[in-house]
Amino acid sequence: MDTKQIALLRLVVARFGEMDRCKWWNTKGVLSNVGEMVFARGFPRSHLFARARTVFAVANARSQEVFNPPDSYTLWHLPPDVEDQLDDAWSSWLGKPETIGEVLSKINEDDSGIVLGCLESLGLVSAKVIERANKLRRADDLRSVPIKLADESRNEAISLLAAAHCCSEAGKLSVPFIRSEEFPS
């Protein structure tokens, strides 16, 4: 499993969800240059990671508030072994923030407002995932995007959770989810 890819998928969706973009969660520009100036004062060496973790936590809380399906996974709530691997990987990234910083700069340069396009331009999702995401629809409650997996791998399933945010509208978050019994092991 590629923990860096998962972190970058979260980073793209987190940035697009901020109030100065798609208005899905209540952070405004934390992952922008403004957020960098503010956080760099208190976290001169680790501000990038502090900013990312802050928006990830807010995105998780907002997603749970909008739609919290039992026995399911979302981009912000993955299987425990995946979350553990992500937590372990953060420490190795702290010493090399350049790569993630470069990706965040590219995300901020994207002014299309289309999360799926940004994921594609950064090479974080495959053509197969893009095709699947474009076929997904919001549930009748308009608060969720149920994903039924076909033959996707674990990485593809997580990529699909990120890409499925394309079903949300500005100011109207629809939470993509996969039932835990369907999630690849």
Overview of the molecule:
This protein has 8 helices and 3 strands. The radius of gyration is 15 Å and the shape is globular. 53% of the residues lie in helices and 5% in strands. It has one domain. The chain has a 3-stranded mixed sheet with strand order 1-3-2. α1 runs parallel beside α8 (154-163).
Question: How would you describe this structure in keywords?
Answer:
mainly alpha; 53% helix; single chain; 3 strands; 185 residues
Task: Summarize the topology.
Blueprint: H1 3-17, H2 33-42, H3 47-66, E1 72-73, H4 80-94, H5 98-109, H6 115-121, H7 127-135, E2 144-146, H8 154-163, E3 175-179
Parallel strand pairs: 2-3
Antiparallel strand pairs: 1-3
Helix pairs in contact: 1-3, 1-4, 1-5, 1-8, 2-3, 7-8
- Report the sheet with the most strands, covering strand number, pairing sense and barrel closure: 3 strands, mixed
Which shape, going by the Cα principal axes? globular
Number of helices: 8
Mean residue pLDDT: 92
Distance between the termini: 11 Å
Structural class: mainly alpha
Radius of gyration: 15 Å
Measured by DSSP, the beta-strand proportion falls in: 5-15%
Identify the strand order in the major beta sheet.
Answer: 1-3-2
Number of strands: 3
What's the order of the H and E elements? HHHEHHHHEHE
Whole-number count of domains: 1
Helix content range: 40-55%
Uncertain residue segments: none
